[in-house]
Amino acid sequence: MLAMLKSFGESLRSAFRKIANAPFIDRDLIKEVTRDIQRALISGDVNVKLVLEVSKQIEKRSLEEKPLPGMSNREHVLKILHEELARILGTGRELAVKKQTIMMVGLYGQGKTTTCGKLAKYFQKKGMKVALIAADVHRPAAYNQLKQIAEGINVPVYGGGKKAEKVVDEGLKKFSKYDIIIIDTAGRHALEDDLIKEMKKLAKISRPAEKILVVDASVGQQAGTQAKAFNDAIGITGVILTKMDGTAKGGGALSAVAETGAPILCIGTGERMDDLEKFDATRFLSRLLGMGDLQTLIEKAEEAAKGKEKSIEKTAQKMLSGKFTLLDMYEQMELLTKMGPFQKIADLLPFGGRLKDEDCLLYTSDAAHEG
Ligand code: GDP
Ligand code: MG
What we know:
Helix 2 (about 25-45) runs antiparallel to helix 3 (about 50-65), helix 5 (about 110-125) runs parallel beside helix 6 and helix 9 runs parallel beside helix 10. It is elongated and about 85 Å long. Strand 2, helix 6 (about 140-155) and strand 3 (about 155-160) form a beta-alpha-beta unit. The chain has 15 helices and eight strands. By secondary structure, the chain is α/β, with parallel strands linked by helices. The chain binds guanosine-5'-diphosphate (GDP) and magnesium ion. Magnesium ion binds near residues 113 and 184.
């Protein structure tokens, strides 16, 4: 997945790889990698000011902070890169699984109608009774599109009227016994007065718990501008970024939305009804970089480091007081193996899993050439 994001991911990945493969980590390498990351972020349409901020932070922390006990210099720098990048991509918020009305807003063609279907399916899978209302009355095709989507996932839909308020009012009555009602609304090419008026009216009638802005991620940083404008106009509760599978600007879109303070609820990663994912910066980044779960490795290393510190202290005291027993020795051995079998740790390492996929391909094709 995330095919086009690959170019953004690929340049970030090569920066991470430089750290992982370097014989040793020094000031020059850190400076070089910081520049690589700057370039990658800018090509991903991340705001230049933010890029400078984050790269400065990466360089400063890498040079000044001491690695945690039990962590190598290399792991330390990878951890900082990861933390700083995850920070600018923002935090997600999970949609509550409870009885509620959800109103979808956004400009034309951003993916509102498709995302209505995706969300309906998501809640349906959680065991909720879901219904859809087609309140985009301006384009005749809009109702049919939602109807088709609804049929595909077995969810009832109400629509077809000429006046959006009437459709919403009637739909809410019809589906009053349902847990989740999702209202699809019309978009425009820009945020115009009549769109704002219509959204306000519909929100007044339906009193939605969530007003979700749907934005196509390929607008990059502009996603932040849209989030701010819609928030000022009607007050949004969160953002869903769509078409993350088709753009290299996803990083820019995520970071710009994060800057507005609007939580990212989900990301759309394809045209199918299942192509909706919860957003978690750490996991997103790990996958974007094509790495194993770096976060898990970091937690594991931190935990082991904590345990080791305490135990070494205890052992030292015992040795000094002449009370070091066979049992203590056993504990020390145990600690050494605490991190688990090597392969398991290697899988968690960013480059541990590498041999399994593309590098294996590289090797096989090389071998084929030689053979
Ligand atoms: P609306 O005008 O905001 O309601 O947008 P639509 O839901 O009609 O979507 C516009 C186009 O974008 C359609 O062709 C969708 O299939 C496509 N689309 C929506 N979400 C995604 C996504 O996450 N990935 C991809 N690749 N296409 C999407
Ligand atoms: Mg639509």
